Amino acid sequence: GQEPLQSPQDIRVHVVNTNFTLGWSHPGKEPGLRFSAEYRGPDSRGAEWEALPGCRNVSGTACDFSVAIREYYDIHYLRVRAQRAGQVSPWSRVLEMVPVHEAQIGPPGLELQSTNGDIKIKISPPEANQGRRMWLDDLSFKYNLVFWEDSANSQLRSQTVFPIDTIGGLEAETPYCFRVQATLPTEAKQGLFSAVRCARTTRRVKELLCPTNLRVLGLNMEFHLHWDSEYTQPVSYSVQYLMGYLKRLNEDYSGKWLGVPGCGNVTARSCRVSSVFTTTGFYYLRVRARGEGGRSCLSGEVKVEPLKTNEIGPPGVKLDVSDTLLHIQISPPGGPEGERMRDSYVLSYRVLYWKNSSNEEEDTKVKETKQTVATIPDLAPQSWYCVRVQAFSESYNKSSAYSREQCAQTAGGKTFPLIILATFVVALAVVLLVALPLVFVLYQAYSKIKYVFFPSCQPPLNIEGFGGELCTSPYLSAPEEPVENCSVIESMIMHEGNQIDFKDYKHSKQSSRDSGNYSNEDNTSGSKGSAEALEKEVM
């Protein structure tokens, strides 16, 4: 009988863009040997395997199953088996595949054009004009161009280019060959190279009117474009700029150049261009020269990345001394109008300080800070110290020149205690001047209240109390003087026939009654006693 069929081995897939090929190996070579594959994908019903379109009953060891795959981010499972008349092999091992992980970037398109000694290139994305796409964002591609002179012993050169770009620095009237590769840096994927294209450079015509050697100088986010010219006749210049991201688009950007404000029709060979750098991206600048008779010539381009092109200037420094402390106030580069510097960079500061002594060599010490205020402690009293400060950006690996040297003298060693003592004495004197009058006023108020409401002796409750000590107070009205009250009873005593008339006493009694003085029973008794005494005296 026939030997049993072996299963296919070495199952693999090859994916370029959205083109899928399944491959395998098998030791059998006899005629009539066929292979069939099955798959299970996100659209499969449950755990059922389905016949793989394009891979049923094929005679070779590879098949194209591109039409079967529609989901590029989901897991797919594949298996293959061999078959011949009346006999099938066991299924191969199951191959697990996520299409986007297996896919390679296909070759991009490349077009060349020779102009004035340069080669202009135009690159189309790897899946241009295709209905099904593995790579959804063409703007994510970066292109690596490799080129060489089409001659023996030539060396390969490569550079990163935009979809529409110009390759300069080539020998005139010389053939060059090019090929390009698309890459996705974010996914660490490198694509396949395009087919080789070749072109011959033309003779370069030198035009003296054209500006040359364009360069941008920047300090504290203030930028100026400079250029050279060999043209000796009257000429005017206009500066143009292009937003850098426009070059990443797969379209012609030639009509999107704009004029730089304040740099139109200037005669000088420099111009301030800070106003156009409004973002942290990159830009391109060029200059058009216009001479007599309407002639004009356009310079080459210069690329500007403001945060990389800019140079950091020295910061401002102000010193303040208190006792043995040195306070350093730092102003960011650019001065009061340096807001763009503060907004663009995260700056740190390197402070150099040393004791300025003519008698001894003092080592320079370094202090770094991210703040605009720094304090140097533990300095010697009555000594001169000097400071220089440098600003730097770690993220951009840039640093400024050091500021100009500034020096200050620390205070004397005993000055601070004397200031404390003087402050204490003055404060104590102020407290005494304020407290003493206040205490005096409070004491006077207390005395008056005590005399009025709590006198040291009480007024008599009745007339009997007048026998005691009189109560005097400067805050009470003076008491009336005591008045002796007398009451005489009119009476007539008979003795030996003689009649005595006490009319005067009667008159006194009447006067007493009229005066409203005290009169009661006790007084009446007293009057009787007085009469008896008088009677005895007469007798």
UniProtKB/TrEMBL annotation:
It comes from the Eukaryota. One of its GO terms (cellular component) is plasma membrane. GO terms for molecular function: type I interferon receptor activity. CDD domains: FN3. Residues 7-103, 311-413 form the Fibronectin type-III domain. Signal peptide: none annotated. Keywords: Membrane, Transmembrane, Transmembrane helix. Residues 506-539 are annotated as: Disordered. Residues 513-528 have a biased composition (Polar residues). The keyword NAD does not apply. The chain crosses the membrane at residues 416-443. The keyword Transport does not apply. SMART domains: FN3. Gene3D superfamilies: Immunoglobulins (2.60.40.10). This is INAR1 protein. It comes from Sclerurus mexicanus (tawny-throated leaftosser). The gene is Ifnar1_1.
